[in-house]
Amino acid sequence: MNTDIAIDARNVGKIYGSGAGAVTALGDVSISIKKGEFFTLLGPSGCGKTTLLRCIAGFETPTKGSIHLSGTDITYDPPYQRPVNTVFQSYALFPHLTVAQNVGFGLKMRGAAAADVAQAVDRVLALVKLEDFANRLPQQLSGGQQQRVALARALAPEPQVLLLDEPLSALDLKLRKEMQSELKRLQAETGITFIFVTHDQEEALTMSDRIGVMSAGALLQVGTPHDIYDRPTTRFVADFIGETNFLEGSVEDHQVRIGTGDLLAVPLEGETGPVTLAIRPEQVSVTSAQADMSGKITDATYMGTDTHYTIELKDGSPLVARIQSKSTATFDVGDTVGVAIDARAVQVLKS
Amino acid sequence: MGKTRAFDVTTLPGFTFIAILAFVLLYAPIVTLVIYSFNGGNSVNQWGGFSLEWYAVAAQNEAVQDATARSLIIAVWASVISTALATMAALGTTRRGKFTGQTVIYVIINQPLMVPEIVTAVALLIFFSSVKVATGYSGLGYLILAHSAFCIPFAYLPIKARLEGMDTTMETAAADLYATPLQTFRYVTLPLLLPGVIAGAMLAFIISLDNVIITEFVKSAGQDTLPTYMLGQLRRALTPEVNAISTALLALTILILTLFVFVTKKRG
Amino acid sequence: MSRPETGRKAPRSKGVDGWLLSAPALILLIVAASGPLLIVAIYSVLEKGDYSGVRWILSGEGWFRVLFERDIFDQTISLADANLSIFWRSIKLSIATTIITFGFGLPTAWFIATRPARSRAFWLFLITVPFWTNLLIRTFAIMEVIRNQGILNTFLTHFGLISEPIQILYTDTAVLIGMTYVYLPLMVLPLYAAIDRFDFRLIEAGYDLYASRWQVLRGVILPIIKPGIVAGSILVFIPSLGAYVTPRVLGGGKNMMIGNFIELQFGQGQNWPLGAALSTLLLLVVLVSLIVYTRVSSKDNTNG
C-alpha cells in the first residue's frame, strides 16, 4: 500500500438510470492523487469531472469500482463520515448562520468542544483574512468574501482532502486571478490535498501540480501542466488545451509527409502509417522570403501583443500562426508567404 | 389621468373607476359593521354615541366566553396538528424528486379545497354520529380532528412554496460538514423552513377560527364556537353584541395577516 | 472511518420516503375528510330510516327523489317542482355571481397589477383581507347594508329617491349581492396572477398594429389571461353552487340553494338518502367542472 496516495479511485463508473434511458456519466476511471498535491480535473461541461468529485465527496455512489482514501475503502461511506470537505460552486453558505457559525459548523457537528470550535474558527478566518467579518451574515458579504467563507468553512475541520467544484466561476476576472494565487497560498500553508474541478484550461495550467483531462466520462491524460500542454497524447487534449493546428500525414522514411507533399522531420517514436500532427500556432513562423512551404494569408486578426494569421496551404488545409505584433514584417490578407514549422516541437498523434 | 399625459398602454377606459368602486363596495360594509360595534344605546338603527358598551356585554356573556375559549382551543390544536403533518408531507413531496403516486398525494391533500364544504360537513355528520354512538365519546376531539384535516392544505401551501424555493445544496453542504441526516434537519433544513412553517400555522389558525359550516354539523350540543354562536344569534337584524364580536374577530384576522405578510417577506 | 454496517445496500427509494412522510397527513385527511365522502355515496343508495338515518337495504329512492315525487295517495309520479326550482336558483345565482364578480374583478385585478411595485403590495393586501375574513362576518356586514332599515335604504330614502324601503333582504337579489360580495376576492386573485405575468409590450404591439382599446382588450389581453379567467370562474362558481351560509343568512329560509336543501334533509325525521344523493350530485358537478378546468388549463399551457 502506497502511503503517499490520498485518493485512489479504481475503475470507477457511474451510470444514471437503467435500460434504454441509461446515461453513462463515468465510464471506467482510475486515478491516484498524491498527498499534498494540487490536482485539477479539467474538461468541458458534462465530461464527468463533477460526477467524479461528487463520488469522492460521497454525494453520489459509483455504480462500479471503488474509492480509497489513504488506503481505506470509502466508496459506500455517507458524506458525513468522510474526512473530505467540499467548496461548492454556489458556495452553499447557510444563510441563517453567521460567518463564524458557518465556519464552525463542521467541527460542531463532529462534537468538538465550543472553545475548540471558537479557536479553530479564529485561526481559519485569519487564514482567509476575514477576522473582522465573523459576526456578519453571508448575504452581507461580497461575492469574493463569500468565496473565502466557503473556503474557510471547508478547511476548518482540517479534512484530508479538499474538493473544489468550479469555485471561481462566479467571480469576475480580476477577483478570479486574486483567488487563484490565494488558493495556491492556502494549499501550500495547509498542506492539504486539493482536488480542483474546472473547465478553464488556463486556470488549470497556472494552478495545478498535475492535471487530469476528462472527456465524455473518460480520463484521457494525466500529467503536469507541461506534459499536458507540450505532449498531448490525444487530439482532444491537444485541441482542448490551448490552440492547435492539426495536419494529417503519413510516416515515410522517419519523416512525415503532409498533404502539401512536404516532408517534416518531426520526432517519431516508432509510429507508422497515417498520423496526425498537432502544431501550436507559436511553432509556425511566417516570412516574406522563400521557406520550406508556402501559403496564402486568408485572415489576419490583430490581438494586441500577437497577431493571428490564418494561412491556406497549397493543399487547401488551414494553418494558424501566432506572430508577435512587434515583429518587423506584417502581412495582409491575400499575401503569398513562406511558412516554416518548428518540426522538433510538433506532437505526433496516432490517427 | 390628465389628458395631457402620454398615451399609457396600461390604462383601459373605465377600469380604474370600477376598481376603485370595487374597493369601496368591498370595505364599506365592513367599516359600517365596525363603526356600529361602537354604537351606544340599544338600537341597531340609531347612532347613540361612541361606546364600548357592547364589547363589555359580549365579554361578560358566559356563552360568548365559552365559545371564544372553545374556538381558541380548537384553532390552536388544529393549527399545531395540521402544520406538523403538513410539514412532514411537504418534506416528503418536495425534497426527494418525483416519485410514483405523488399526484395522488397532492389530490388528497388539496381535497378540502375542492369539495364543497357542505358536502364534507354532511359526510362528517354521518360518520361522526355513528362513531359517537359506537364509542360514547362526544367531546371536542371530533371538531379538532375535522378542523385539523381541512386546515392541512392551507398549512401545506406556504411550507411547500418555501421548500421549493430552498436550495438542496444547503443539505448537501451540511452532510459534507459531518452533519448526520438528523443533524442536517435540526440545524439546516428546519431553521431555513421556519418562516414557511410559521406562515402555514397562521393560515391554519385563521381558517379554523373562521369555520362555520363543518363546525355547525360536527359539533355536539353545547359545543358552540364563536362563528356558530353568532349564526345562532341571528335575528331580523344583527344584535350590537354580534357586531362587537365580529369586529374583534376581524381585528384578530387582520393582525395575523399582517404578521403573515412580515414573516413571508423576510424570506431569502 | 470504518465502513458502515449498511455496506452496499441501496439507499431507500425516494417514493417510500415520500409516502412515509406524507402518510400521517393522508391518514388524517382520509379519516376526517375524504373517507366520509364515500359513506355519503353509499347512504344515497340505501333506504330511508323510520325516524332518521338509514336502513341497510339497497334502494334507488334517494336518487329518485332528487327529481321526482310520488303522490302519497295514488302513487302517481311527477317532477318535484320544488327541487327543480332550488336547482335552477342555485345554477342561475352561481352563474350570475360568476359573471358579476368577473365584471368587477377584471378591472380590479388590472388596476392592482398596473400599480407601481411598492404600492401594489398594499392593494393586494386590501384584497386579501376580505378573502381571509370570516365569511359569516362579511355576510353579516352586507346584511346590515341591504336590510330595510340598513344604510342603503336609509340613504335612498334620505335623498328622496324612494319613499318606502325596498325589500332586498330575503330575496334572490340579496343572495346574489351577498355571494358577489363574499366571493369577489376569489375572482380577483387568480386574475391578478395572470395579469401580473402579462407582457405589456404586447399591448404596445397591438396599438402599433392599429387596434383600438376595445380590440386590444378582446384580441390581445383576454385570450392571454384566459387561464386566470377560467381559474377565477371555477373558484367562484364552485363555492357559489355549494353555498350555505350566505343563502341561509340573506335568503331567509325561503330562498334556499342546494346547500340549504341538503342540510334540510339531515334534520330529525328527514330523508338522509335524499340528502346523500343531493350531496353526491353536487360533488359530481364540482368534479366535472374541475376536470374541465384542468383540461382547459393544460391545453392552454401546451399552446404556450
Automatic annotation (TrEMBL), chain A:
Belongs to the ABC transporter superfamily. Spermidine/putrescine importer (TC 3.A.1.11.1) family. GO terms for biological process: putrescine transport. The complex is composed of two ATP-binding proteins (PotA), two transmembrane proteins (PotB and PotC) and a solute-binding protein (PotD). Keywords: ATP-binding, Cell membrane, Membrane, Nucleotide-binding, Translocase, Transport. It comes from Sulfitobacter marinus. It catalyses: ATP + H2O + polyamine-[polyamine-binding protein]Side 1 = ADP + phosphate + polyamineSide 2 + [polyamine-binding protein]Side 1. Signal peptide: none annotated. GO terms for molecular function: ABC-type polyamine transporter activity; ATP binding; ATP hydrolysis activity. It is an enzyme of class 7 (translocase). This is Spermidine/putrescine import ATP-binding protein PotA. Residues 7-241 form the ABC transporter domain. Gene3D superfamilies: 2.40.50.100, Nucleic acid-binding proteins, P-loop containing nucleotide triphosphate hydrolases. Part of the ABC transporter complex PotABCD involved in spermidine/putrescine import. Responsible for energy coupling to the transport system. Its EC number is 7.6.2.11. One of its GO terms (cellular component) is ATP-binding cassette (ABC) transporter complex.
TrEMBL record, chain B:
Keywords: Cell inner membrane, Cell membrane, Membrane, Transmembrane, Transmembrane helix, Transport. It is found in: Cell inner membrane; Cell membrane. Residues 68-263 form the ABC transmembrane type-1 domain. It holds the Pfam family BPD_transp_1. The chain crosses the membrane at residues 12-38, 72-92, 104-128, 140-159, 187-209, 244-263. PANTHER family: PUTRESCINE TRANSPORT SYSTEM PERMEASE PROTEIN POTI, SPERMIDINE_PUTRESCINE TRANSPORT SYSTEM PERMEASE PROTEIN POTC. GO terms for biological process: transmembrane transport. It comes from the Bacteria. Required for the activity of the bacterial periplasmic transport system of putrescine and spermidine. InterPro entries: Bact_Polyamine_Transport (IPR051789), MetI-like (IPR000515), MetI-like_sf (IPR035906). Coiled coil: none annotated. This is Spermidine/putrescine transport system permease protein PotC. It is a multi-pass membrane protein. One of its GO terms (cellular component) is plasma membrane. Belongs to the binding-protein-dependent transport system permease family. CysTW subfamily. The keyword Transmembrane helix applies.
From TrEMBL, chain C:
The keyword Kinase does not apply. It is found in: Cell membrane. Residues 87-293 form the ABC transmembrane type-1 domain. Its main location: membrane. InterPro entries: MetI-like, MetI-like_sf. It is a multi-pass membrane protein. The chain crosses the membrane at residues 21-46, 93-114, 121-143, 174-195, 216-238, 272-293. Keywords: Cell membrane, Membrane, Transmembrane, Transmembrane helix, Transport. One of its GO terms (cellular component) is plasma membrane. GO terms for biological process: transmembrane transport. PROSITE patterns: ABC_TM1. Pfam families: BPD_transp_1. The keyword Transmembrane applies. Belongs to the binding-protein-dependent transport system permease family. CysTW subfamily. This is Spermidine/putrescine transport system permease protein. It comes from Sulfitobacter marinus. The lineage of its organism: Bacteria, Pseudomonadati, Pseudomonadota, Alphaproteobacteria, Rhodobacterales.
